[in-house]
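Need a sequence for this fold. Nothing fancy.
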């Protein structure tokens, strides 16, 4: 009977604790993680990310697998970072409560939709670049890198992006013997 009481108490504590919000105050002056990312990747621009994409695709299409893999990784990082920065511009809306968002006039939301779509487009391109990067490593015979990238890509790819879903799936299955 004591075990049952202890287990019940633990379950109640877990449920109550799970529902509580993080009470740690946010430090509005701590930008260390953000600055680390800027120091590592820089500040991406649409023009610079487009140039990286063009360069990476040319290397990939030219069959220069080693250089293409590196260029695709650099492009994917920058596309992801650019998507995150675009989303940051929408954070006041995202961070609002459901009721506040619901009451926010559509005429004010409508101009923001293009930025939401742009961020999503960069995330889609990031995912596609990761699949191509995996394909490069598969062609180079670096199976562990290829498998990790295919697997991660499959976690990220949207169900509607069937072309890259199938490419990642096929690449993974070819390596593990499922194809």
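Here you go.
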């Amino acid at each position: 009977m004591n075990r049952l009481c202890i287990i019940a108490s633990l379950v109640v504590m877990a449920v109550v604790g799970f529902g509580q919000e993080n009470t740690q105050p946010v430090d509005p002056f701590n930008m260390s993680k953000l600055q680390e990312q800027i120091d590592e990747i820089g500040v991406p621009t649409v023009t610079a990310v487009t140039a990286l994409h063009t360069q990476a695709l040319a290397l990939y299409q030219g069959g220069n697998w080693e250089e293409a893999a590196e260029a695709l990784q650099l492009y994917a990082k920058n596309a992801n970072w650019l998507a995150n920065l675009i989303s940051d511009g929408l954070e006041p809306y995202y961070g609002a409560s459901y009721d506040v968002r619901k009451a926010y006039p559509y005429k004010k939301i409508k101009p923001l939709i293009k930025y939401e779509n742009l961020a999503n487009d960069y995330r889609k391109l990031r995912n596609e670049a990761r699949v191509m990067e995996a394909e490069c490593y598969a062609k180079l015979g670096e199976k562990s890198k290829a498998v990790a990238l295919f697997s991660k890509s499959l976690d990220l790819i949207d169900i509607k992006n069937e072309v890259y879903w199938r490419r990642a799936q096929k690449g993974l299955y070819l390596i593990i013997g499922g194809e």
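For context: Residues 4-21 have pLDDT under 50 and may be disordered.
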